[in-house]
Every structure is written in structure tokens, then in C-alpha cells.
Model the fold of this input.
Amino acid sequence: MIIGIGMDIIELDRMAAAIKRNTRLPDRILADREKEAFLDLSNDRRRTEYLAGRFAAKEAFAKACGHGIGRIRFRDIEVTQNTNGAPEMCVRGYEQAHLFVSITHSREYAAAQVVMEEKNG
Done:
């Protein structure tokens, strides 16, 4: 049974400006493995897309929970990739939920949607 749905969208230019203003922003948003993947990216444009996508996914998760990000830290939410390259989400304290996440990018935006489903048994 679905227990929550959340979505978020962010302007890539806004994220790029935020990274320039605060170089520690990736440290605030990304979990350790996400940070490693971020640093492995080849250019600033791709890093901006990656960070914006993760940010949107984490905000979408908080909305699926029915509260803002204040009740959970960004770093407690980790978005990795499965063997096919699709995003997967793991959240400390929410192991009882089955999470579905989708992240997309355009030239100007990154967006994400999260569906939270109750695990059976």
C-alpha cells in the first residue's frame, strides 16, 4: 500500500550559484558514497546536475513522509544506483518502507519523485 508520494524540482542555475557561494554545500547534502561519486564526475555542469538531482530526491522523500527536511538530515538519505544505473534510495530510520525514486534532468531543471510503499511482512 502506498503511504506517501513526494516530488521536487530545482533550477540548475540556482544550484550552480549555491555551490559557488558555499563550497561545502555538497558536504551538507551528500552521504559519503554520493560524495565519492560527485567528486568522480568530470566537469562542473555534471556535478551541478548530480547535486541538484540528489537534493530534489531528498526533498521529495521528505514530502512523501508528510514533513519537511527538518525532521531528517540530508545525509541520512542516500541515493545510489542499481546495476542498470537506475536510482535507489536508502534512508536511515525508514527501513520499514519500500522506496521508489525517479530523477530527471533537463537543460534548466532537475526533478525527482519518490513513492513510499509499506513493506509487507
Remarks:
- The longest strand covers residues 2-11.
- The CA atoms of residues 11 and 40 lie 22 Å apart.
- The helical segments are 12-21, 25-29, 32-40, 44-65.
